[in-house]
Amino acid sequence: MSQQKRIGVLTPSSNTALEPLTSAMVAGVPGVSAHFSRFRVTEISMGDKSQNQFDERTILDAAQLLADAKVDVICWSGTSASWLGFDRDRALCARITELTGIPATTSVLALNELLAAQGARTLGLVSPYVEDVQRRIVANYAALDIECVAERHLDLTVNFSFAEVAPDTLRTMIREVAQRKPDAITVMCTNLHGAPLAAEMERELGIPVYDSVATVVWKALKLAGVDPRAVKSWGGLFA
Q: Could you tell me the residue range of the domain that residue 16 belongs to?
């Protein structure tokens, strides 16, 4: 019997970062491949148009397409629950599994699991989002008794533009939030190229850096029965 493990990834339609990053992370893991299904997401704000993009029915349609590929796990590589509420992702995962029989996870739920395991009580938050989205993220983590002691955001709304943020801009933002010495730093957006910087920044700063593309890959591997330590050079969460 084949030992192939297939990771199914739900992807925002205008995202150009997460697919190559996810594939690169698992490329060195024997027998593991990543497979993608898109649904329309083009802007991020607190407006109705933006929030309606994350209607559960649309996401479930994309998840059922992944189920046709007999994937071992379905993951939402997106961070909408960080501002819309963590219960949205819990309910989404339950519905995906109910419909497909396949275990499910998300970038944000995986991040929260990592923070809980670490015992983190303070967080540095880096994102491309606008102020009101950022405030909602900060408030949702405060409800988990995790204080965002420092944050940086870029006030961008067009999702496609997030992937064009330069690595040096992200390095600067990460360094700035690190000045408050949080227990952990998160790069909260799966259309940023933060994952390739995580190991480098951790060595420089001595603080765990949890990128939201990497967090969902970490949890997806665990759900698929694959040791995440097989992923090399993408940050301490895999070690």
A: 5-109+213-238
Handedness of CA 65, 66, 68, 74 (dihedral sign): negative
pTM of the entire predicted model: 0.96
pLDDT in tens, 118-146: 999 999 999 999 999 999 999 999 999 99
Give CA 127 to chain center in angstroms. Answer: 12
Question: How many CA atoms lie less than 13 Å away from 204 in the CB half-sphere?
Answer: 13
Is there a single domain that holds both residue 11 and residue 103? yes
Specify whether the backbone of 206 is left (phi greater than 0), alpha (psi in -120 to 50) or beta: left
- CA torsion 60-81-211-125 (nearest 10°) is 170
Query: Is there a single domain that holds both residue 30 and residue 90?
Result: yes
The predicted structure's pLDDT at residue 154 = 98
| Claim to verify: residue 126 and residue 13 sit in the same structural domain | no
User: Which is it for the CA torsion 46, 49, 55, 59, positive or negative?
Assistant: negative
Residues 121 and 141 in one domain: yes
User: Any idea which of 36-50, 81-95, 171-185 has the lowest mean pLDDT?
Assistant: 36-50
What is the residue-wise DSSP string for 168-223? HHHHHHHHHHHTT--SEEEE--TTS--GGGHHHHHHHHSS-EEEHHHHHHHHHHHH
Q: Are residues 124 and 204 in the same domain?
A: yes
- Which CATH number goes with the domain that contains 156? 3.40.50.12500
Q: Is 16 in the same domain as 104?
A: yes
140 and 66 share one domain: no
